[in-house]
Amino acid sequence: MTTTRRKIVVLYGSQTGQAETIANGIHEDAVYNNYDSNVFCLKEEGKEFVITDVTCVIFVCSTTGDGDPPENARKFIRSINRKSLSETHLSKLNYALLGLGDTNYSTFCGGPKKLEKALKQRGAKSFFKTAYADDGTDLEDTVEPWIEGLWPALDVYFSSLGTMPNNVMVRNVQSCETVNHTRTEVNDVKADMENLALSKDKIPTIPKDDPSTSSLLSNMTSVDSSQSLLNSFETEIPSNEMLNMSSAPFPGSEELATITLSPLSKQWIGMRFVDAERISLQSQDFKYQNGHSFPLATSETILTKLVEAKQLTRDDAVKIAMEITLKTEDQFPYQPGDSISVCCENPKEEVDWLISRLSLNDVADNAAEFFVLPNSSKKATNPCPYVPRIFTIRYAFTYCIEIRSVPKKMLLRSLAEYTTDQSEIRRLQELSSKQGGHEYVALIREKNVCILDLLAAFKTCSPSFELLVQHLPRLMPRRYSLINSPLVSKNHLSFAFNVVKFEKDIGRMYARDGICTGFLHNLGNASSNTTNQNISQLPSIKVFRTKSTGFCLPTDTSPPLVMIGPGTGVAPFIGFLRHLEALSAQTTDRWLFYGCRHKDRDYLYKDELESYLNKGILSRLLVAFSRDPTSSESPKYVQDNLKLHSLDIANLLFQKRAIFYVCGDARNMAKDVRQCIIEIITKERNCSDKEAVDLFKQVLDEKRYREDIWA
Ligand code: NAP
């Protein structure tokens, strides 16, 4: 046996940063376990590492679009797919692969599957079973056990080579710290949590005239939810509102007597103040998020002016839909069906509360910089590239950090280290433990709890700003489909959306709007309330164009089109129809299937759609109302109308070779529509289910069934 240190390389392909975070965590654990480990992005091949020189690699790769590898992995996959390479090109390479995907989308884990196929074709060998984690349910359900199993698998692999690590302590389930709570202790914890929930203490509130909070972002409009946020936090927390265990026993809670603590992720981001003086940083002082690139961005981030905000629904609609129109200064080339990403900000009131809760009021506006802690194994020179090099805490929390993201178990585990009250520590440990998985999902994940909720509930928890930056993801721009045609609106970009609402709930300590839809809604209200129509005074919004997913009109406009888009899913079709009208494109079979809840309350673009029908731009307009009291036969959903026209649909699919477009909800609607089309094929082609699925796959391969769906 030799005593060489075991050498591994962790390589990631990451679109939104999740795969990168997981890869970094594996690398940290590897260093902790005395492996000679490095972590790189796959795009660094040839610069930081050479794939033919490495023998043991852990790949973490996500998926984007319709089953594509992330952008930063594509070149690597292309390079090992080169026909000129032999089948043994990577025969020295032994790998383990963790794939990330989302079953709400049609091609689950397409990115990592393509990567693995390419690796295998070049002779690489897997030493540990590949796993595919599903973001549609819970990534951590798969990621955690896979990482636990990785260490013994690496041990077996290296042992087979005859290498012995230096004092290695392979971290696995057994070697993780185990905390035994007796049954009584667990009940104590539950009682403590009830006490916590019943506590008469008030959560610290922010003086509304605090000068340190008003110096920045003075141009932000007041947010309606601010008052409700502050009021929520000022009122006592009702007993049933915070992690009240006794009224809701969870499966698996019996197991909580013994909890296995997951490894504590090492802190590696440090921060220092570079200037004792306060500075006021406004969004326009920097390129948004330091100009750091965004996945799928296909244009520079440009500044637009919000020129119009319209409510599209009646006030009594179940969901309030709005249309926003932005004016661009310069040319902004786009196609109908394209989408833009809106750079949003966190609500001022929440940022202020967070700063106050972390006792950072005195320093929140001081110039600061990040650094990598000296004893860290991280090689990064800039720990947080999407925060300007010199920043303020307030700026980072407002523009760069996703403070509403659901805290990962790793964060809960770290928060326990910053908490003083024993019952709170135990509760955080439980929620972050393997045994607390069900509770974590039910109380944190499914309730969309965020760090503010946790800090409101766990009153003795005082994490550092750096810890939160390390664990909370980057604030990502939100994507919206354009409803314009470039032939009609050259300098205007419009999109429609529902204002997302989250009511107060167990664990969710205050009512809130969606981050971006709330931001747009408030800016829209502010702009429509202003009498000053001087464009320079209108609210500014930064946007960029997002890569087309192939959801576009064919260049030749003659093929028949079938458009299926309930709710705001109709948005890109409005763009299509405006474009076809502007082209005076010859009328052919063009069907639109739309669905909403009530004819009079939320039928979006009703007049415009009916006018397209009258002008012959549309040949059929079929609308289903899901909640209007009509006869039991009347169609409820778009699928019902598809079925009512099943023979026409089959003809359009096979004889007329129409292009089908589906836009809207990925979780239910898109799946149900696919199923409905397969049933129509079975019926109209008089074939078996399997044959129908095969026929449908052919249509997919011919790119005649296109989806732009949103989970
Ligand atoms: P929605 O809530 O999905 O509802 C629209 C209609 O669809 C309602 O009548 C609803 O009926 C019905 N519906 C519910 N379940 C269905 C199913 N399984 N099959 C068919 N119809 C069903 O509409 P929305 O709120 O506008 O949502 C559309 C989705 O598309 C959202 O997820 C949105 O984020 C996304 N989207 C986003 C953009 C964007 O630009 N960001 C663009 C397009 C779409 P009931 O509620 O009565 O059951």
TrEMBL record:
**Sorted UniProt keywords:** Amino-acid biosynthesis, FAD, Flavoprotein, FMN, Methionine biosynthesis, NADP, Oxidoreductase, S-adenosyl-L-methionine
Domain spans labelled FAD-binding FR-type: 299-554
Q: Which InterPro entries match?
A: CysJ-like_FAD-binding, FAD-bd_FR_type, Flavdoxin-like, Flavodoxin/NO_synth, Flavoprot_Pyr_Nucl_cyt_Rdtase, Flavoprotein-like_sf, FNR_nucleotide-bd, NADPH_Cyt_P450_Rdtase_alpha
Q: Which cofactor does it need?
A: FMN; FAD
Limits of the Flavodoxin-like domain: 8-151
Please give the coiled-coil regions recorded for this protein: none
Under Enzyme Commission nomenclature, its number is 1.16.1.8
Q: What class of enzyme is it?
A: oxidoreductase
Recorded protein name is: Methionine synthase reductase
**Which species is this record about?**
Clavelina lepadiformis (Light-bulb sea squirt)
Upper classification of the organism: Eukaryota, Metazoa, Chordata, Tunicata, Ascidiacea
